[in-house]
Design a protein that fits this description.
Blueprint (H helix, E strand, L loop, with lengths): L4 H4 L12 E5 L3 E10 L6 H11 L5 E6 L5 E3 L6 H16 L6 E11 L8 E8 L5 E4 L19 E3 L3 E6 L16 H17 L3 E8 L7 H10 L4 E8 L9 H7 L1 E2 L2 E7 L3
Parallel strand pairs: 2-3, 2-11, 2-13, 3-5, 4-5, 9-10, 10-11
Antiparallel strand pairs: 1-13, 5-6, 6-7, 8-9, 11-12
Length: 273
């Protein structure tokens, strides 16, 4: 049986990052540079650090550098969301020590789980690292199994930087998938409606999407298309790990093509070498 992507987050035998191959696709000066990792990435601190060090050797310039959701997984020791954010920022700062990536803002996905049982407390964070005060947010729209997700505030997803930016943490993007509208009930329906209203009011120009795994564009394509319809977004991108137990479902070129729009540079790190 093929494991659900969430189960892979607790895989005891992920690939350890050794020799890696990096390729870039797109203009070297871009609005968004998004990291795509090909292979069963461990999400360990040392492996995440090694990837960033390799990326820092590449010659590009971007306004926003985007990593996958859970780019690094940190130990759970929190009693609430604010504590998790504080520690997430500390781990993100450690990741970036000695790393020079030519981007105005670097968005790091940081996860922490109290248990492999997703009914237990956990967070999935986005840490925006920049010379200015760092900004933090986290997932607000969990999968059905994520009963223990400690959710962020919806307002924290909307950033006024050089332009208006909306940050989406993995399943958050499905807020815009019209196919789930009829099945969303109660608080899930309320989150979808409130977030969509926020997008209409805020009028973001850039959308940044952290995903844990993206091995096919069709997981996200309906959501991206609907987000385009209701917003002023001109540049968007999904960052993720290109891996699926049992085999990926689409070519990576097609996956990249349909999960980014506008000025996007693809930084593809192959750890399966």
């Amino acid at each position: 049986m093929v494991k659900h992507h969430k189960e892979l987050l607790f895989n005891p035998h992920p690939a350890k990052v050794g020799e890696v191959e990096i390729q870039m696709f797109g203009a070297e000066r871009a609005k968004i540079a998004r990291l795509f990792i090909a292979g069963n990435f461990s999400r360990r601190f040392d492996d995440a650090k090694k990837i960033l060090e390799k990326v820092s050797e590449m010659d590009f310039k971007a306004d926003y550098f985007l990593t996958p959701s859970g780019f690094v997984k940190i130990p759970w020791k929190f009693s609430g969301f604010d504590e998790a954010l504080k520690d997430g920022k500390r781990w993100a700062a450690r990741l970036l020590e000695g790393v020079e990536i030519n981007a105005k803002q670097i968005f790091i996905g940081v996860d922490s789980y109290s248990s492999s049982n997703l009914a237990k407390p956990h967070v999935e964070l986005s840490i925006a690292c920049s010379p200015d005060p760092w900004h933090c947010t986290g997932k607000v729209y969990p999968t059905v199994s994520q009963k223990g997700l400690i959710r962020a505030d919806i307002d924290s997803h909307f950033l006024e930087l050089d332009e208006r930016v909306v940050v989406l943490c993995c399943h958050d993007l499905t807020i815009f998938n019209p196919r789930s509208d009829s099945s969303a009930k109660g608080w899930r329906k309320e989150i979808k409606e409130e977030f969509r209203e926020g997008v209409v009011d805020f009028k973001p120009e850039v959308a940044l999407h952290h995903s844990h795994y993206t091995d096919t564009p069709f997981t996200w394509i309906a959501s991206w298309r609907n987000l385009e319809k209701i917003s002023d977004v001109r540049h968007y991108a999904t960052s993720g790990v290109y891996y699926r137990e049992g085999g990926v479902r689409a070519e990576i070129e097609r996956t990249l093509e349909l999960t980014g729009k506008g000025s996007v540079l693809d930084v593809v790190v192959d750890i399966s070498c």
